[in-house]
Specification:
single chain, 145 residues
């Protein structure tokens, strides 16, 4: 199982979960110690493939996503909870795609939600900018120790 397969499964999950047109940039290396997270969630994969996926954006984008997915714009504690659940939805769906398309058994860890913070403990990441039509922008980063 390659890193490229994981990234492709995550991007496919983003398209299927959000149900909007998505434009993806080419992956680029980034220094994760230089990333300030306005709003985001980290979910890890375990099993046949281990990896950490960080989904970052703004609280405004996550609020618009909550309206698109659940029919109401969330804020405060409910938005914080939704951000974690969005990470679960993306990575749970990606895990299912990995199982069906690549016969890879994985599980996901509980989400860690970030707000106005930096992350530490990772050397670098592979970042992909995503534009969600009518919603806004987010970045997905495969972070590496």
């Amino acid at each position: 199982m390659s890193t490229a397969n994981l990234i492709n499964c995550v991007l496919k999950a983003v398209s299927q979960v959000t149900q909007v047109e998505c434009q993806f940039s080419k992956p680029s290396l980034c220094d994760t110690n230089q990333i300030f997270i306005k709003s985001g969630v980290l979910v890890s994969l375990t099993g046949d493939f281990n990896g950490n996926i960080l989904i970052t954006s703004t609280s405004e984008v996550f609020s618009i996503l909550s309206d698109k997915i659940y029919g109401m714009r969330l804020e405060n504690d409910m938005l914080h909870s939704f951000t974690g659940e969005f990470g679960n939805m993306i990575m749970g769906h990606a895990s299912s795609i990995l199982a069906s398309d690549h016969q890879t058994k994985t599980d996901i860890t509980p989400p860690v939600v970030f707000s106005d913070s930096n992350i530490h403990g990772y050397k670098q990441g592979l970042a992909i900018d995503i534009h969600l039509a009518g919603i806004g922008d987010m970045v997905i980063i495969l972070v590496m120790k």
